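Deliverable D2.4 — example input (structure tokens):
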């Protein structure tokens, strides 16, 4: 049902280091009104996806036996891995135990509070001791009232921050995803107060991921006075128009947030925005917080970093360090990864070679005389 590697697309192939996903449940019970994952997964009551255990075990075991650098996996992308059904089935717990056994790094993403209970917390602590995990918690707003409307069945934001504080106190790296970021709402009561609260919770990295939703959802989300732009490349991507806040609706708030976070020593990045000059971390996901040997695939961010020093010929990858897997390096990896990652790489090169696509994905790169070049939107 679920491929362990995210499908090729202009979006995922261009932006994402973490294309390996481990999906323990077929759906999600939190009922977030903005949830984009419902476009890709089953609807209705969540069911355990038991096949994921063999999928992940096979991958992790092959990587370890071959002595290869693992690409960190996400637990998970389409449903909360610690939603209430986890108390019964403990699929996510079993996945974490496999990660520990085979020394496979895992990025945990959840709104849940169950993971600070036993036996989950014990495994997370051990993974963190070995540098194999980081925790991402998603928060769209600190307002309990607004969160109840947006995320009716999820734990309130203050409970999620308690989880963040507990995990950070155990030396588990904590990342906050302001996801979805909703202009005029997500930074309330003020950017200063928000950043202070995150710092007190021990947060080390913040990611902003702008809301993307159907045009018909705009009024429900209170975005009627905000300039919007198309998110999808064509109607067929989702079957209906999908929009996101335009750059002018969020850039000022992003810059303010970045500046405040820097004062607390907290790094900042955007997710699927292409605003690379705002990033203060080595990668958007927070992989740099892991303390283990791992690999990652190249993204448009690597084109941006390279373009700070030189122009890059189209139809090619930028210069890359040994920590990246690409090209012939992929031949050493199991077929379950090798084939889809090669396809993602082909799409990335195609995206970076076609101005009409590239300019839609990032305002900070352009193509001139057959070369990819820097197009800065800000002067720092």
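Example output (designed residues):
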């Amino acid at each position: 049902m679920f491929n362990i590697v995210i499908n090729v697309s202009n979006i995922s192939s261009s932006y994402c280091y973490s294309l390996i996903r481990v999906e323990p449940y077929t759906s999600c019970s939190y009922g977030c009104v903005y949830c984009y994952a419902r476009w890709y997964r089953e609807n209705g009551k969540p069911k355990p996806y038991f096949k994921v255990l063999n999928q992940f075990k096979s991958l992790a075991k092959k990587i370890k036996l071959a002595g290869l650098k693992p690409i960190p996996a996400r637990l998970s992308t389409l449903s909360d891995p610690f939603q209430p059904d986890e108390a019964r089935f403990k699929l996510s717990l079993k996945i974490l135990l496999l990660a520990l056994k085979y020394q496979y790094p895992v990025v945990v993403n959840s709104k849940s509070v169950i993971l600070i209970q036993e036996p989950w917390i014990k495994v997370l602590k051990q993974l963190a001791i070995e540098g194999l995990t980081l925790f991402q918690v998603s928060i769209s707003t600190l307002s309990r009232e607004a969160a109840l409307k947006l995320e009716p069945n999820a734990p309130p934001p203050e409970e999620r921050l308690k989880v963040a504080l507990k995990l950070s106190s155990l030396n588990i790296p904590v990342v906050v995803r302001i996801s979805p970021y909703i202009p005029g709402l997500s930074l309330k009561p003020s950017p200063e107060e928000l950043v202070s609260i995150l710092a007190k919770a021990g947060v080390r990295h913040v990611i902003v991921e702008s809301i993307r939703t159907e045009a018909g959802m705009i009024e429900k989300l209170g975005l009627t006075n905000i300039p919007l732009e198309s998110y999808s490349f064509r109607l067929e991507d989702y079957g209906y128009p999908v929009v996101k806040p335009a750059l002018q609706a969020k850039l000022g708030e992003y810059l303010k947030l970045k500046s405040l976070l820097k004062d607390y020593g907290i790094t900042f990045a955007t997710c699927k925005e292409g605003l690379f000059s705002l990033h203060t971390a080595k990668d958007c996901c927070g992989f740099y917080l892991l303390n283990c040997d791992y690999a990652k695939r190249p993204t448009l961010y690597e084109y941006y970093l390279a373009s700070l020093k030189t122009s890059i010929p189209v139809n090619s990858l930028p210069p890359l360090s040994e920590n990246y897997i690409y090209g012939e390096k992929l031949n050493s990896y199991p077929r379950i990864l090798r084939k889809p990652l090669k396809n993602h790489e082909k799409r990335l090169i195609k995206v970076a070679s076609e101005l009409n696509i590239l300019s839609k994905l990032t305002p900070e790169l352009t193509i001139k005389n057959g070369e990819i070049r820097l197009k800065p939107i800000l002067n720092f």
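Residues 50 and 111 are 22 Å apart (CA to CA).
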